[in-house]
Amino acid sequence: MSTEDNQFQVSDYPETEVRRENMPDNPFTLFSRWFDETLDSGLPEPNGMVIATMGDAGMPSQRTVLLKSFDEGGLYFYTNYHSRKARELAANPRVSCLFPWLALHRQVEIQGTVLKVDRDNSAQYFATRPRGSQVGAWASRQSEPLPDRSALEEQVRVMEKRFVGGEVPLPEFWGGYCVRADRVEFWQGRASRLHDRFVYTRDLSNEAQWDIERLYP
What we know:
The protein has helices spanning 27-41, 84-91, 119-128, 131-139, 149-162, and strands at 48-54, 60-66, 69-71, 74-80, 94-101, 106-116, 174-188, 196-202, 210-215. By secondary structure, it is an alpha+beta fold. It starts with 26 loop residues before the first helix and ends with a strand.
């Protein structure tokens, strides 16, 4: 196989502009605007975000989770507290989250620190999940070795029988995280690879304030 066989055709981006004078003071105001535009575009699962954590021996790891809500306090997602990502977050709570809205020639990277969501908040969200997902949370020993698919399916049947006729409670080992942002970068693709990049950085002397810079593409 030649080197040319591994090359991909490079397409140019439409001329969509981001101006500094139009940037709001708070990054989540712009994030909300872009998120709504992504929803309106019909892009599948615009709330899918890639979370990077630091594992053993400094090896980074990534996975895609679903953003469930956000506000000026941060980004909220839910998971098994015994999972690989949860173990890595316990050891190092610093994360990077990426929203790859590639069809719109946009991406947003959010860096920050995670905090566990209180149990009442986690329980409120867990109650909104489909029953199958609730049972699945009890059945799955997330990130542990699984001998075969039938073992998981059997565990699902065990849990369905356990909770038959009643509500499925929140597992002790399951709940939410909030990513409190310190740095938010917005990337807008533009023609000739001369993209627009703006980064918000939280002001350490006044955490309610954000500094805004344009970056070279």
